[in-house]
């Protein structure tokens, strides 16, 4: 039993809150989390937190914006109720992929609007099924509706390119066209991949018609989210495997960024046969440091999937041509990444690794966000096994994905909370060798 410590669970991940409370030996605090008819979030803390050390558990993923606002309101409620200290525990930190902006040689934060070159090496990275575009109902993605949409998107794109237009344009009325040639089908798949962006504003970005000489302005939402948490009253943040560890520098309160690597490493040791002969693979250059940390500490070989062209827009990232640097022939390949959202990255990487002769492909990912059709995409892919932690709720994912295995992170967060509460060092939780 820990004294003066209060744990409040948000709506994003009740199971994780339960696990953390069981390990700490405290009951979750009584709170009322609901919504007004209009959709506004309502929070009532129904027990005294005066002078207490409060930990609010709320993860990203799922209805991320609702969860974020609920967290902000709960933090504010605790501060105004005279809590001594409020710590936001965010196993998956929302908006942490937006701490930076798309790469641009000309300087941040302006982005060029140009049509990227298509991969032309004959190897395609189409994903099955394609993810619905943002703003469309999720269920539209798999059947005839999506087929028709793909064709019309592809036609619009071909028109744009042949007209020499610098901007990809979606068809104005969204109605399907009748073209059915093979080349069109393949272009349709590429267009659908474009539409598979997990960036919620992409449809608007793609339909934006800049004037000559004008460039788009990209919001830095990561900075805003850091400011919002601090402004709401958070005194401390605990999170895990931040997409960009430098994001900690956006806060002027302490941020403890725990590692998911010990869990992944232990899974490899216990579950992958002859793991020392296997190869650790990073699916992109951004994750190379993460993957080499595991490979080096386990004395395993490392390979990298290199995206040949660095895209200028987030929405173009899926079009980059991929090539493998390293040898995986007749060996087990273990993809390591911090998160899987649409799962395009890991499924495309798996396809390439199998093509290069890998005997089996595992994907070990800290945050299994698995939005939209990600599960269907994994089920239809060459991945043999996908291992994620439950930093995001996995109950529904587990039911739908036979390839999925889940590692528990509740005890790691419980131990971090216990140590922070008692003023002990938590550096032991950062060690993974
Ligand atoms: O499941 P998906 O939707 O494919 O997304 C997963 C990928 O997205 C993130 O990287 P990001 O594309 O942001 O690039 P970066 O690593 O270069 O920052 C992450 O590190 C994964 O590699």
TrEMBL record:
Q: What InterPro entries does the annotation carry?
A: Pribosyltran_N, PRTase-like, PRTase_dom, Rib-P_diPkinase
Tell me the ranges covered by the Ribose-phosphate pyrophosphokinase N-terminal domain, including all copies.
6-100
- Respond yes or no to whether keyword Glycoprotein is given for this record: no
A UniProt-annotated Pfam family: Pribosyl_synth
Q: Which Gene3D superfamilies match?
A: 3.40.50.2020
Molecular-function GO term, any one: ATP binding
The record, for SMART domains, names: Pribosyltran_N (SM01400)
Q: Which domain of life is it from?
A: Eukaryota
Official protein name in the record: Ribose-phosphate pyrophosphokinase N-terminal domain-containing protein
Q: Which organism is it from?
A: Penicillium alfredii
Lineage, opening ranks: Eukaryota, Fungi, Dikarya, Ascomycota, Pezizomycotina
């Amino acid at each position: 039993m820990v004294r003066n410590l209060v744990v409040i669970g948000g709506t994003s991940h009740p199971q994780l809150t339960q696990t953390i409370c069981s390990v700490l030996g405290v009951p979750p605090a009584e709170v009322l989390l609901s919504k007004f008819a209009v959709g506004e979030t309502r929070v009532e803390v129904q027990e005294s937190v005066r002078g207490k050390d409060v930990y609010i558990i709320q993860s990203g993923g799922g209805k991320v914006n609702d969860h974020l606002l609920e967290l902000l309101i709960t933090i504010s409620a605790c501060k105004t109720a005279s809590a001594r200290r409020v710590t936001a525990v965010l196993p998956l930190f929302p908006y942490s992929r937006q701490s930076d902006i798309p790469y641009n040689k000309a300087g941040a934060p302006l982005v060029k609007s140009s049509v990227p070159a298509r991969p032309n090496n004959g190897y395609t990275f189409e994903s099955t099924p394609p993810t619905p575009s943002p703003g469309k109902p999720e269920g539209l993605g798999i059947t005839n509706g999506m087929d028709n949409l793909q064709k019309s998107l592809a036609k619009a794109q071909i028109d744009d390119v042949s007209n020499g237009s610098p901007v990809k344009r979606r068809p104005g009325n969204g109605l399907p066209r009748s073209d059915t040639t093979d080349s069109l089908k393949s272009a349709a798949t590429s267009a659908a991949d474009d539409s598979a962006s997990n960036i919620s504003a992409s449809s608007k970005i793609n339909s934006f018609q800049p004037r000559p000489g004008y460039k788009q302005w990209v919001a830095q939402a990561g900075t805003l989210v850091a400011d919002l948490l601090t402004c709401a009253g958070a005194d401390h943040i605990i999170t895990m495997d931040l997409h960009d560890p430098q994001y900690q520098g956006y806060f002027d309160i302490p941020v403890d960024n725990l590692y998911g690597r010990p869990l992944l490493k232990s899974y490899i040791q216990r579950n992958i046969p002859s793991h020392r002969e296997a190869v650790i693979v990073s699916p992109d250059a951004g994750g190379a440091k993460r993957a080499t940390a595991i490979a080096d500490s386990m004395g395993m070989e490392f390979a990298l999937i290199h995206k040949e062209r660095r895209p200028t827009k987030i929405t173009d990232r899926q079009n980059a041509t991929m090539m493998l640097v390293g040898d995986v022939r007749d060996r087990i390949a273990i993809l390591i990444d911090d998160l899987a959202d649409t799962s395009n990255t890991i499924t495309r990487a798996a396809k390439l690794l199998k093509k290069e002769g890998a005997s089996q492909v595992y994907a070990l990912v800290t945050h299994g966000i698995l939005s939209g059709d990600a599960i269907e995409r994994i089920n239809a892919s060459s991945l043999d096994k996908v291992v994620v932690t439950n930093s995001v709720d996995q109950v529904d994912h587990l039911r739908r994905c036979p390839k999925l295995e889940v590692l528990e992170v509740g005890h790691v967060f419980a131990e971090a909370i216990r140590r922070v509460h008692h003023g002990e060092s938590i550096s032991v939780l950062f060690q993974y060798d």
